[in-house]
Write a structure and sequence with these properties.
Elements: H1 4-10, H2 15-27, E1 36-37, H3 39-46, H4 50-63, E2 66-69, E3 73-76, H5 81-105, H6 108-122, H7 124-127, H8 130-148, H9 151-165, H10 169-172, H11 175-193, H12 197-228
Antiparallel strand pairs: 1-3, 2-3
Helix pairs in contact: 2-4, 2-9, 5-8, 5-9, 5-11, 5-12, 6-8, 6-11, 11-12
């Protein structure tokens, strides 16, 4: 007869899927910094067992996305601007490598897919669709990493991305930043199409660092506004 604990451990989705679900909630700001993650609620929403939910939370704690404290449980971790700086520097290096390898390895059909995705993103400002741009942007970057063949690096970027994506998403993909990101994508695509490995690497690195520069300016502006208009 099957052991009850073993049966419970196999109930519902595996811990990795539950961790992915929680990560998506954090990325979409449905779970925000400082929010307590209630195991019972996660079990209800994912269909996972308590054992698997706890394993998923441990995984996310190891990634630095959540904090787990005795008697208090799990809470979504905030990211300081210094942590964001480190994350962006890491992303710039890793995604630059992926852009270079995409240039080396991609087929004409794969480059055409990337070009079509770029054109689709360029329509977003006219349509006033920053959320759609955000989704397309994630697919665009993921496609480059997938085709590059760097699966370990792609997984690393997914973990690096999450704490950044939860910061000021609604403002990040608007106005000048949206147009700047589109111009960056066009430069990266041009280098890839030309088969220029070094230029693709450099353009991708600059694109990621441009995002950090924008976030830094946003953070400074918010702090200045808080000083002028204290709550």
């Amino acid at each position: 007869m099957e052991d009850a604990a073993a049966a419970l451990a196999r109930k519902g989705p595996p811990a990795v899927e539950i961790a992915d679900w929680i990560r998506r909630q954090i990325s979409a700001s449905r779970f925000v910094p400082g929010q307590r993650l209630v195991e019972v609620d996660i079990i209800r929403q994912t269909g996972g067992s308590r054992f698997k939910v706890r394993e998923a939370l441990q995984r996310l704690a190891a990634e630095g996305l959540i904090d787990i404290e005795e008697f208090r449980g799990a809470t979504v971790r905030g990211a300081s601007m210094d942590e964001v700086r480190q994350l962006y520097l890491a992303r710039a290096a890793v995604e630059g490598i992926c852009a270079a390898d995409f240039t080396r390895r991609s087929s004409a059909a794969e480059r055409r897919i990337l070009a079509d995705m770029t054109i689709e993103m360029e329509q977003c400002p006219q349509d006033h669709a920053p959320e759609r741009f955000g989704r397309l942007n994630a697919r665009w970057h993921a496609f480059i990493m997938d085709v590059s063949g760097n699966l370990v690096l792609a997984d690393m970027v997914k973990r690096l991305n999450t704490p950044v994506h939860r910061l000021l998403f609604g403002t990040f993909y608007r106005g000048d930043r949206l147009n700047e990101a589109i111009a960056d994508h066009r430069r990266i695509l041009h280098a890839i199409t030309a088969g220029d490995v070094d230029a693709a690497d450099a353009a991708m690195r600059q694109h990621i660092l441009n995002g950090y520069r924008f976030l830094t300016g946003l953070d400074h502006a918010i702090h200045e506004e808080d000083e002028v208009n204290p709550v």
